[in-house]
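Structure ticket #2291
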Amino acid sequence: MRIDTLSGSNSQTQGAQRRAWFRRYAPEHLDQSAALIKQALALRSPSASQSTLVLGAGACTEVPLELLARSSEEVVLVDFDLPSMLRARGELASPALQKRIRFVQADITGGVSSSLDRQIKRQPWPSLVEQGVDAFFDAATACIELIDVPEPPVIDTLRPGDFGLVISSLVLSQLFSYPLLDMLDHIQNVAPDFLFEQERHRHYQDASQIFRMRVIASHLHLLSSLLDTGGVIALLTDIRAFAFREGKDERGGTPGPRRTVPIVPRLFPELLQRTFTIVEEKHWEWITDLPEKERPGRGYEVVGYILKNP
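Resolution: structure written out below.
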């Protein structure tokens, strides 16, 4: 499962060295992320819990952890990747601030990837390959439809209403994309000739989109349930990916000609509005790779929200 390799991939894409790269090549991303979280802290009611929760914390590359630690009685970092969280705490120079950091190692989907893995193991894949593409993808579709998506997930030691600030830090799209990539990995392993045929299978595509919305709704429900009265949520997520070549757009500051791929479903803003009161909404771009020779650069369109329970 992709989630099992998270620590290895994060070691290359998160932490102090990666933050320094962003500071040089994508400073707006760091500035906007920190500013949104700082604004959320300022909007937290004095009567609300002074504990802060960071879901999908990783190495806190974009999260101003020192500010959170100074402004909170406790900061709870939650991620499946414990080594990255340890590195994040290790960057704090003050032992007193380090003592305010607590870790919870957990799959914040509540086991969605494991649920899919169980469904995959129940299917007679060699027989399905012999039956052809339609039978194969009917079975793959059934696996996705039968994934158990907790509503909301239960995470040990996290109790409802315990936090005055809840941060979802650029993790939302991973929650649904990792299981769907697991499905594609399985297709490539058992039927490599069928890979990409899923694009023509309407039922598979519909089931995948419904799954994305189920996972998003589950995560939003988790954010809402953990928030204390008078508390606020800072939700940061990528919404579109883009590839680009050298060049500038008409504004002169952003990489030019590009190919864009949507990440979250179009209904995401509507679901968000039905779940929360939106206090603030900010959009910016996040460059993750510069173009090199034949390889295009890569980046994301990011949206950051400050939310309150209605």
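Closing remark: Residues 2-308 form a domain with the Rossmann fold fold (CATH 3.40.50.150).
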